[in-house]
Amino acid sequence: MPDLPDLLEKFLASRMESRSFSRSTAESYARDLKAFAGAMEAQGIGDPGRVKPHHIAAYLAGLKAEGKAPASVARAASSIRAFFRYLAADLNAIEADPAAHIRPPKPERKAPRILTEAETARLLETPDGGGPSGLRDRAMLELLYATGIRAGELIGLDVDDVNPSLGYVRCASPDGRERFVPLGKAAAEALERYLKDGRPHLVRPDRPERALFVSRRGSRLTRQGFWKLMKKHAETSGLGGVSPHMLRHAFAAHLVAGGADLRAVQEMLGHKDISATRAYAQMARPSLKSVYESAHPRAR
């Protein structure tokens, strides 16, 4: 049987030929698998049939002990699993797949950056409300923060989906579920100004358009177009690096910090699982140190 390095080359070549891997993916797999093969050969294991589950588990544990990022360890585990699956299923080169039951560690989820109320206000006030595009942009940002809807849901809205006078927005979640979200005063006023003085100057009279937010050409604003506008206003506000989803985070965190019921926030966000909403309670909770310093009579 060919040794590990030869089989690695064969595995990578087969994936490139079948276009299962891009060049960058193949390079990542090559680095991971060559490092693994080197570790096995250092233990005197050159035959892939001699690799056992405990060898793989020990190797991954070693990567973690070296301080490798969880994402890097998870990628190495995926590379090793794909390689041995190829040996067992495609080549029939080994009797049993030693990596079949290896589970990579879950990458650590970083807490999202939450804009403060002052930062949010600065961003929302950035678009120039003197022209049609400025009215549109301000209405979009106000609507994102007022409702917590996703960027895709925002650009998917039609004119009939909003009712500023009654104060609600109707949108469809990615899974197709429809929900109604309340609309605050500031967002309702921004929408009314856009619908009255902005949108009529953007749409083309000869081309009916249902979309609520349209480009300068009069057609529905694209996701890429909205991202460019968001980036421009974030940079102008001096905040930088602000994504549309950060306004969704701010919506939820600020509501929870203000005492809103988690179930109500879950419904407005369209979360299926309440655990996703509970994360905002942790973000909004002040640190023990700040609570102590503000409340204890001898702390100041």
From TrEMBL:
Residues 2-88 form the Core-binding (CB) domain. InterPro entries: CB, DNA_brk_join_enz, Integrase-like_cat_sf, Integrase_catalytic, Integrase_recombinase_N, Integrase_SAM-like_N, Tyrosine_recombinase_XerC/XerD, Tyrosine_recombinase_XerCD. Forms a cyclic heterotetrameric complex composed of two molecules of XerC and two molecules of XerD. CDD domains: INT_XerDC_C. Site-specific tyrosine recombinase, which acts by catalyzing the cutting and rejoining of the recombining DNA molecules. The XerC-XerD complex is essential to convert dimers of the bacterial chromosome into monomers to permit their segregation at cell division. It also contributes to the segregational stability of plasmids. Keywords: Cell cycle, Cell division, Chromosome partition, Cytoplasm, DNA integration, DNA recombination, DNA-binding. Belongs to the 'phage' integrase family. XerC subfamily. This is Tyrosine recombinase XerC. Residues 110-293 form the Tyr recombinase domain. The keyword Phosphoprotein does not apply.
